[in-house]
Amino acid sequence: xxWDPFRIRVNSDAVAAxxxxxxxxxxxxxxxxxxxxxxxxxxxxxxxxxxxxxELRLAIAVKDDVPAIVVTVSLATLLPGxxxxxxxxAEITREGVIVSLGxxxxxxxxx
Amino acid sequence: xxxxxxxxxISIRVDGARVNALARQQVAGQLDDLTLTFRAGKIHVAGxxxxxxxxxxxxxxxxxxxxxxxSVVVPVSIPAIVAPVIRAIAAAKIPPFVTVRxxxxxxxxxxxxxxxxxxxxxxxxxIIDGGLAVNIGPGGVSWK
Lengths: 111, 144
Description:
- The structure holds 2 protein chains of 2 kinds.
- A 5-stranded antiparallel sheet of chain A has the order 3-4-5-6-7. A 3-stranded antiparallel sheet of chain A has the order 1-11-8, with no helix packed on it. In chain A, strands 2-10-9 form a 3-stranded antiparallel sheet.
- Chain A is elongated.
- Chain A has 2 helices and 11 strands; from the N terminus they run ββαβββββαββββ.
- In chain A, 14% of the residues lie in helices and 56% in strands.
- Chain B is 16% helix and 49% strand.
- Chain B is built from 2 helices and 13 strands.
- Chain B has a 4-stranded antiparallel sheet, with no helix packed on it.
- In chain B, a hairpin with a 2-residue loop joins strand 3 (33-39) and strand 4 (42-51).
- The A-B interface holds A 1-4, 6-11, 13-15, 17-18, 107, 110 and B 1-15, 18, 22, 25, 134, 142-143.
């Protein structure tokens, strides 16, 4: 099967709730272009460092004068090998993360 | 619950040649030949089964595919005389998520494929040249 480009939204409230479930003291506030993350005395600003067809890189900056930690979210780790899905772009907004996906396809192996 | 990931709508095309290959694989040993041809508004099914030493051809058509909730309904138009034979063949190989309504309508339960936290709504399935066009409505994935 094949599909045309489409967009998915990762909902900010759902992500914040998910994080709070695991770390009750954590806060996650989505803004246009960045996410503010905090827990106790820890505070970080998360931005989108880069996107590539197979990866989305998040930069986590704790202090202005310290290089950000880059976390890579790889599609290959989330999807089975027979699914061809590419990231065309992504943006952080107040509502969450909007990811634009390019045309793709899947060819499931025979049962 | 607010879905963690959501989408507005997705158009998917299913390749008829791949469906044909899967169908042939599914009926291997039951039929001697099976070919599905996808044309706009119609899937033509042509097959052959040997009875003794005589190969008996059969034909059928699917003129539409409907969606009923979480099920896909595929009515097959077939001459009444061969319907019992085809039903018997289908019954022998039918997977548990498919049921057959008389005279010969296959009902595929999609929720058997999808985990409960994935909400997918199929709006429409059209038969097009070379395959199927599937229109998926807004949906999402919840995570707890």
